[in-house]
Amino acid sequence: MSLFANAVACLLCLLFAFNLCRVRGIFHIALMIFIVVMMSGVYTLFAGNFSNPALEYYPIRMVALTFCVFTTELRENRRRFMVLAQAFWLWIELVGAVSLYQMGLEAPWLRLAAIAEIGLGCCFMVHISKEIEFGLIVLWMAVWMFF
Amino acid sequence: MNNKVVTIVFIGLCLLLLLSVGGSFWDGSFDHFLHGASWNFPRIMFVFWLGLSLAGVLLSAFLLVMKVKIYRRTSLLLELSSLCSLVVSGAYALLFSSSIEVQGGVFSIGIVGFISLLFFVTHLVAADSAEDLALCKELAKIRRPLAWIILPTIFWVVSAFGLEYAKNENLFWQGAFFPLYLVACVFYLGLAISIALLSFENYYNRLIARFLMLCSWFMALLFLWTILLKGHASMMSFVLSCAVPQLLFFEVVRENLWGRLFVVLCILFGGLLKCNFWVNLDDFHFFTNMTFASASIVLAGGILFVVLFLGVRFLLSRFFENDEILMGEESGNSDGEVPDGEEKKYYPSFSAPEFKVVRLPVLCGVLAAVAYGYFTSDWVNLAGPFGAYVSCLLVCVQPFMHLVFSKRRKEDRK
User: Fold this and answer.
1) Which of A110, A14, A128 is closest to A62 using CA atoms?
2) Is B216:B256 a contact under the CB 8 Å cutoff?
3) Residue B158 in contact with residue A91, Cβ under 8 Å?
4) CB–CB of B174/A57 below 8 Å?
């Protein structure tokens, strides 16, 4: 996927997370997540080249980034869910990297390390202020864009 | 227990088994039982029951970690179903060792089985108020820490199993999506089987039924994605496990015991067809190669599960049945959620009681996993589960250590 398409995907994730924050109730949240998964799949279908094996899990990566950004808006159990969302992202990236490695392709190990480090850092956070929330979102975007 | 449903299901399965074993003499397929090295039907069943063996405990641990409160009976049934499914898959592996090759990935599922047993026993003893109260309290403290270890271990094991299967057995499934799809399927089967098991108990958890319906939409999306990626997928399985659950939208089906059972059985059969597709890459292989012998092994697995499950369930009925108010038929307004009785308290990082329980065992587990990986060079299949095994053992030892030390302290004071 091109750099521009990757950037648009990142912006889409922010938009999804923003919308996810606005809904209340388990049914509405689940419906919104369903729409997020569907939109991510449709975006990947149109923006990417399917012959690239790295795109197999691209929509799920988008969902993982959406979850990470969404957790910054939570008011209860925020650190727990932030770490869980990053663990989910890490798991998706790990499975993707291993499968790419098995196919003899270059795997994004640096991205894995970056997500693991940010996730570990989140475990140490005591009070997550607005500034830290913003910093985390910027870090996740940087991992998405540059690694 | 809903004796009527249990009796009808059990007698129905036994009659069908007798009929199919008799039929296998008639169509000459009985020979498969004796010389069936190339017969891949047992492999399909083995993979299916192996998936179910992770489903129940995955769902139970997931709900515990996410702080979704469900009643103890539901969790116990899920954990017990996992153990019984593991025994059924083990029976397949023993009886059809010529057609089922047991590899490293399968051993890791065995380790998860042992951890699930620890989780289940801890849950049983913690819930038993007739035993030592101090021990019950101590064991209740390690429930969630165990779930924190079990959840990532199951994700690890299923992913590693999927990756290994795609690499060594069926290159068609190679790619990043297949392991994720496997985990989603296992989770979905867990939801389905929980509704079936609660039906045996004459209860209905509306929360799980809603969750199942929501998950069926996600499964439909994943199915469409598989078609886009691979070109084809099992249509029969899609109809049974994604389209049929939409019947739960109708109150007549949702609130009726047999309606719910029909939907759940369709999902489970859809899961079985999915396993068939993963092994054979042919949607209709299951039906075109169906003989009486094949039907016999499908039914034998089902009967073994029902017998084991109900046997253990009856033996341990005092743990399952207590005076708590349950959801479903007894309380029409309940949706399965338990009201939150605990007061919410903020804990700074690394100071929550769960973390204090889990920190040293996990550290030892990580060291054990690294040592195992270093000496055996097996970093993918068994290193993670081995680390989790060590961690879980150490977590389970902690309550007994606390009790011994507290007794000594009391004696010293005297």
Assistant:
1) A14
2) no
3) no
4) no
Helix locations, B169-205, DSSP H: 177-200
Q: Answer for the pair B395, B153: CB distance below 8 angstroms, yes or no.
A: no
Chain B residue nearest residue A44, CA to CA: B225
Give the predicted TM-score (pTM) of the model. Answer: 0.88
CB-based contact B229 A45, cutoff 8 Å: no
**Cβ separation A92–B179 shorter than 8 A:** no
Residue B325 has pLDDT above 50, yes or no: no
Phi, psi of B328 (to 5 degrees): 100, -135
Model confidence at B341, in pLDDT bands (50, 70, 90)?
low
Q: Tell me which residues of chain B have a C-beta less than 8 Å from any C-beta of chain A.
A: 65, 67, 152, 155, 159, 163, 166-167, 174-180, 210, 214, 217-218, 221, 224-225, 228-229, 344, 348-350, 380
Any idea what DSSP says for residue B324? Answer: S
**What does the pLDDT look like over B158-168, one tens digit per residue?**
998 888 888 88
Query: Would you call B331 helix, strand, or coil by DSSP?
Result: strand
Q: Which residue has the tokens 């759940």?
A: B264
**What is the CB neighbour count within 10 angstroms for residue B6?**
18
Distance CA A32, CA A36 (A): 6
pLDDT single digits (tens) B8-63: 888 888 898 899 888 888 887 777 776 666 677 888 888 899 999 999 999 999 98
Q: Which two tokens stand for residue B59?
A: 């769902």
Contact between A70 and A21 under an 8 Å Cβ cutoff? The reply is: yes
Q: Is B328 helix (H, G, I), strand (E, B) or coil?
A: strand
Is the ipTM, as predicted for this complex, more than 0.95? no
CB pairs under 8 A between A and B: 72
d(CA A140, CA A142): 5
Q: Rounded CA gap, A131 and B59, in Å? A: 36
The gap from C-alpha B10 to its chain's centroid, in whole angstroms, comes to 21
| Domains of chain B and any CATH numbers | 3-336 (1.20.1630.10)
Whole-angstrom distance, CA of residue B141 vs CA of residue B147: 11
